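Residues and backbone
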Amino acid sequence: MIALGCDFAGFELMQHVKKYLDDTGLEYKDFGTYDESPADYPIFGKKAAEAVLSGECAKGIVICGTGIGISIAANRYAGIRCALCHDVFSAKATRQHNDSNMLAMGGRVIGRGLAVEIVDAWLNEDFSHEERHKRRIDLLELR
């Protein structure tokens, strides 16, 4: 299951991500927001991150206006590796090298088509398990 979270600026793009997940048969839990009324991204980044940390969800996708704020909110939690991606190459690389467990995107930065390509690439790429990448992830966990 995939945890989803967005603020009002990411709401529209999240609807397209949800359609992609529905079309591919992937289950998700939507932690809000649920409309375009002003809302604070840290609330929804936290809810999605907590669902990933607890094991309720295997991965998470979060969206705000730029993707920056909500990725910072998610990354406040030890064990979360939330990568802000606005291109397919970065989405693949963060899975291969960083074993990212959350993806952040900016609803005001990228369009629908690219967002779906990024989500698809990120969800379908595996961690390389190379020793150098494992070592670096271990270093990130030292908080």
Remarks:
- The mean pLDDT is 96.
